[in-house]
Model the fold of this input.
Amino acid sequence: MRYKIVTYGCQMNVHESEKIAGLLEGMGGVPCGEGESADVIVFNTCCIRGNAERRALGNIGVVKAEKKKNPDLVIAVVGCMTQQSGTAEMVKERYPYVDIVLGTRNIFDLPSEIEKVRASRAAVKKRSDKRYRAFRTEFAEDYLTLDEAAPVARTSFPNAWVNIIYGCNNFCTYCIVPYVRGRELSRPASAVLDEVKRAVDEGYGEITLLGQNVNSYGHDLAGGESFEKLLREIGRIEGKFRVRFMTSHPKDLTDGVIAAMAESDRIAKNIHLPVQSGSDKVLKDMNRRYTRDRYFSLIEKLRAAMPDIGITTDVMVGFPTETEADFEDTLDLVRRVRFSNAFTFIYSPRKGTPAAAMPQLPYAEKRARIGELIKLQNSITKELSEDYVGGVYEVLAEDVSPKHPGMLCGRTESGRLATFPGEREMIGRFVNVRITEARSASLFGTVEE
Ligand code: SAH
Ligand code: SF4
Ligand code: F3S
Done:
């Protein structure tokens, strides 16, 4: 059984695809090679913005031809998109050749559903009229237990993704995630620590802790668990490795977490702290539950504790109540904070969320705002990049450079991408790179022995 997994969306989904791979390999599957035809195709979808959804649906449309060539092909659609109300039904109607739709918290049923599809097809060939299709998106009660028991086939060496908390309780008014991922569920600390230890023993140099809001880790567990405590415990694990985490919500980032980061040399001096907007009014309408002053004070604390910290963010433009003056406040915040990088998004109405029911801004306005924002951030990123030139930084060699043959790439502790000449064998090793050139967001250099 050759399988192919097509992944959309965030790191959470990238890691979930590693779990799906683990499940498929558990039933004898092997990854489909270049140019081979697959027996099972799984679309692991995202619905954070309209275009993420359109991309997935477009590609699900394209496999119709493949299914015609190979009627035995099993097609499954899973992930966030399927969990929106009405989507499973829509897929059933518009893409009748899709065999299986599963949601975010019943994914562990994938192997048994595949078996059922195959068994019913075998029965059809024996002239019975049995046919099986599964469209199920209910949340499994024992999700955490099933999750701990499931195998993972990692594909991101030397980076190991480790979930610490699932779901989200925050209900930012623009966001679909709480609806499609359900309420927060923290993994037991012992399970997280075991997984980190195992990955470090296997040679993974970088551990990325994943959660929609890592700072709310533990509030649903007994025994006073917290993200700060978890970070400190991970920091005590033996071995050479670096820890990153995402995402941090500004409302829950505590002084304790900042101290834990500063005190451990295993925790990378790097944080992704989505601000979304620089206007207090818009932040309030978004239900973010912090102010721009609170955000500035967090940045100050982080930089006071870790002067070289790399801080990245997410910024959204075109939220329904955003005026030109609000947008100016966002530009002002971006100018003052000087993020090393920012992911910028045009607000996209998501059905069923409060913001989608508000009067919307014209697209042209949103487009103009994001253009201005990107221009500003690019100039800041470029300026900050220049500061690296001449310095020597410890970089984990992560992969061959996708754009520069004969070169490797990896990130500095602060999270900046560096590209340098090197052999494939070096992947997974920490090397010291002298930065010789900065090109906007990318740094170039050579390895120092
Ligand atoms: N849990 C994370 C964010 C996950 S979604 C957090 O709270 O920080 C990643 C980013 O997508 C968000 O930070 C936001 O900037 C963007 N996003 C979420 N919903 C969006 C929408 N409806 N339209 C445009 N961007 C959105
Ligand atoms: Fe969405 Fe807000 Fe939850 Fe992040 S914290 S996943 S933006 S609701
Ligand atoms: Fe997308 Fe789901 Fe992640 S909606 S951004 S894949 S949590």
Residues 363-386 form the longest helix (24 residues).
